[in-house]
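It would be a great kindness if you could assist me with a short task in structural biology. The matter concerns a single protein, recorded as an amino acid sequence and a row of C-alpha cells. Kindly check, if you would, that the fold set down in the C-alpha cells agrees with what the sequence suggests. Thank you for your consideration; the sequence and its C-alpha cells are set out here:
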Amino acid sequence: MTSLPDQPAAKRLGLVIDLDICVGCHACAVNCKEWNSGGVAAPLTDRDPYGAEPTGVWFNRVHSFEAGEGAAGRTVHFPRSCLHCAEPACVTVCPTGASYKRAADGIVLVDEELCIGCKLCSWACPYGAREFDEDDGVMKKCTLCIDRIYNETFDPVDRVPACVATCPVSARHFGDLGDPGSAVSRLVAERGGYDLMPEMGYAPTNKYLPPRPRKDVAGCTGAPAELAPVVAERGGYDLMPEMGYAPTNKYLPPRPRKDVAGCTGAPAELAPAIPAGSGGFLGWIDQLLSR
C-alpha cells in the first residue's frame, strides 16, 4: 500500500465552490475536458459521444438536485471533482504507489506509468472522483491543472485551473486553503463553507459554500412590495382578454409621446448662447464664426 507524506502539507491548494450562484451551465466540465485532453493527463477517452450510451473520462461533473418542497423548493447545481483530501483513502489503498499525495501543495495525482488499472482507488473514494480510462487501462483524475497553475509563461491571473478560469458567474475559487489568511480561506469562514461528507474522516481540501437563505419576503429583492398599485396607476392590461383565460401577467402601455416644447423638462426655447451685439473676446469669436 502507498503511504502519505510524513508531514502534512502546509500549503493545501484547492477549490471553493459556491452552490448559491452555480447555474449548472457545465462550462467548468467542458473547459476541463478541453484543457486536459491536451494536458498532462491526456488523452481523455470518449466512446460513442453522440450515441445513445456515451461513456468517457470527465474530471469534473455537474449534478442538479431539487431541494425542498413546494414554495420552499429550489434547484441546486452540484459540481463534483476530486477533493484532494488531507487523508485520501484512494492513496493509501493503492498497491503500486501510482496514487500519491504531493508534500509541497497537497495535490493528489496518479502516476500512469505505475498504475495497473486495478480500480481499488475508485472503490475507496466515496466521492466518485476517480475515472477509469478504458483505452489506456489506467485511472485518471483531476490534477488541479498543475500544468496551468505552475506555468510561468501564463500571466499570474491565468494561473488557475481551467474550470475556475471559465466559470461565467465566478462560482469557483482557487487558492491555498492551508493559509487562514488567504482569500479562499476567508471566504469559507465568512460563508460557512463545509466539507463534503465529513463523517468519512478524509478531510477534503475543497470546500462548498451553501446556498444563501431564499428571499421570499415582498420587497427584499428590490422589487416593489406590491405590484397591484403599479398596474392600476399605469392602466395595465391583459393580453388578448377576449380569449377569456384571465392571464395573471399584465402589460403596462407605453406612456404618451412628449412632443410639446417644455413638457420633457427642457426649456421651451433655448436663448442664444451669445447675446447679439456682445463685445469682447466672445463677440470677436461670434463674428469670426458667422462669416
User: Anything to note?
Assistant: Residues 27-36 form the longest helix (10 residues). The longest strand covers residues 61-67. The domain at 13-209 is CATH 3.30.70.20 (Alpha-Beta Plaits).
